[in-house]
């Protein structure tokens, strides 16, 4: 195993960062990253002579080597100090001092190391904070934020994942965020969108987004200046247990479709995300359940009339937005019926011209729709005789 390689050479190797946080919270970490006192050059030499395959992924100048073992990738990073930071990326130099490496990490809960023998190395009270569900920057918030302004959003993301109460922030942290919010203007839209999506799917989302506005962050990350916070309130209650897409939550802030376009200009969201946003803004009011025995009819008609592929999933998101849990379940079980009559059937009945066939099919489609898509081929064709 690769830990033995390190041990043989007297390099120290520990699990680092988020994986330690997850393990201590009793969760299975998604990625396990390692930190070591060995330099990239030393690691390369050691792995190569042991016949371990290395994957080239440009991480080397930051000190990261990726080794491929037993069908898994292991990322191992040399301990480092950030020498120069510009609010986006850092120039690093290597060190053998574990505390120095912990010191340049963002949040205390992400700054711990775990020895492979189970020993915890925790220089900044991260374990205590994790147990108390406290999210704090390592050292001074201002300094951490100015090293990489994206950390403002990481703060909110981890708050939404770990904190128990919605409003349990240190005033100095909020102050530091407010004073440095405009630094986010220099961060790429793609990086921001990755973090924002995770915030939108976390806990306390209503509170988090309100804070983004209160602390002047919203304007720098593409959110509408006068986002509709009342609608956000309503929608976050609606979608509580419905697993919405991030855009479904976000759409509550938008008043007009330009809000979606502006977000896209800043964050470069995917085409599918943009279309969902536009769809929700357009139909959230005018497409709603019918009064009477067939509440789903308007949605089903919409899907049947739609010429686009993924209308189904857009309708599901609309039902989540509207908080229609029961209808959503029914809608997810509904399969789009296929129209039972073809031009071929009409030719057999002696309708010959293409134009007449087109007209007849359209009329039959209307009848079929009126019947709630229940009429079968026989009924429809006998209906044609009447027409």
From TrEMBL:
GO terms for cellular component: mitochondrion. Its cofactor is Mg(2+). Pfam families: PolyA_pol, PolyA_pol_RNAbd. Keywords: Magnesium, Metal-binding, Nucleotide-binding, Nucleotidyltransferase, RNA-binding, Transferase, tRNA processing. One of its GO terms (biological process) is tRNA 3'-terminal CCA addition. GO terms for molecular function: metal ion binding; nucleotide binding; nucleotidyltransferase activity; tRNA binding. The keyword Nucleus does not apply. InterPro entries: Bact_CCA-adding_enz_type3_sf, NT_sf, PolA_pol_head_dom, PolyA_RNA-bd. Residues 13-136 form the Poly A polymerase head domain. It comes from the Eukaryota. Residues 170-221 form the tRNA nucleotidyltransferase/poly(A) polymerase RNA and SrmB- binding domain. Belongs to the tRNA nucleotidyltransferase/poly(A) polymerase family. This is TRNT1 nucleotidyltransferase.
């Amino acid at each position: 195993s690769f830990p033995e390689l390190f041990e043989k050479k007297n390099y120290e190797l520990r699990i680092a960062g988020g994986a330690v946080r997850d393990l201590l919270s009793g969760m299975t970490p998604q990625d396990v990253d390692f930190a070591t006192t060995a330099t990239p050059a030393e690691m390369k030499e050691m792995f190569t002579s042991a016949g371990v395959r290395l994957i080239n992924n440009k991480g080397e100048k930051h000190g990261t080597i990726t080794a491929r073992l037993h069908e898994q990738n292991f990322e191992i990073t040399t301990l480092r100090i950030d020498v120069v930071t510009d609010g986006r990326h850092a120039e690093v130099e290597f060190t053998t001092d574990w505390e120095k490496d912990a010191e340049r990490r963002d949040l205390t809960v992400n700054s711990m190391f775990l020895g492979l023998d189970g020993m915890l190395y925790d220089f900044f009270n991260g374990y205590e904070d994790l147990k108390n569900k406290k999210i704090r920057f390592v050292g001074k918030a201002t300094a951490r934020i100015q090293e990489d302004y994206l950390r403002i959003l990481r703060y909110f993301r981890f708050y939404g994942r770990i904190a128990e109460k919605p409003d349990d922030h240190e005033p100095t942290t909020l102050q530091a965020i407010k004073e440095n919010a405009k630094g986010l203007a220099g961060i790429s839209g793609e990086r921001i969108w990755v973090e924002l999506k995770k915030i939108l799917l976390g806990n306390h989302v209503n509170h988090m987004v309100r804070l983004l506005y209160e602390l002047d962050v919203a304007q720098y990350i593409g959110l509408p200046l006068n986002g509709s916070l009342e609608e956000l309130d309503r929608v976050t209650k609606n979608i509580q247990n419905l697993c919405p897409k991030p855009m479904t939550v976000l759409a509550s802030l938008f008043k007009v479709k330009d809000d979606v376009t502006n977000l896209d200009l800043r964050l470069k969201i995917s085409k599918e995300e943009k279309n969902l946003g536009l769809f929700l803004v357009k139909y959230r009011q005018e497409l709603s359940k019918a009064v009477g025995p067939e509440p789903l009819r308007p949605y089903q008609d919409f899907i049947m009339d739609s010429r686009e592929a993924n209308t189904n999933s857009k309708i599901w998101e609309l039902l989540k937005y509207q908080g229609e849990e029961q209808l959503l379940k029914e809608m997810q079980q509904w399969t789009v019926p296929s129209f039972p009559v073809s031009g071929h059937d009409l030719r057999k009945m002696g309708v010959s011209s293409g134009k007449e066939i087109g007209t007849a099919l359209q009329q039959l489609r209307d009848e079929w729709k009126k019947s709630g898509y229940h009429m079968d081929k026989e009924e429809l064709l006998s209906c044609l005789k009447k027409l």
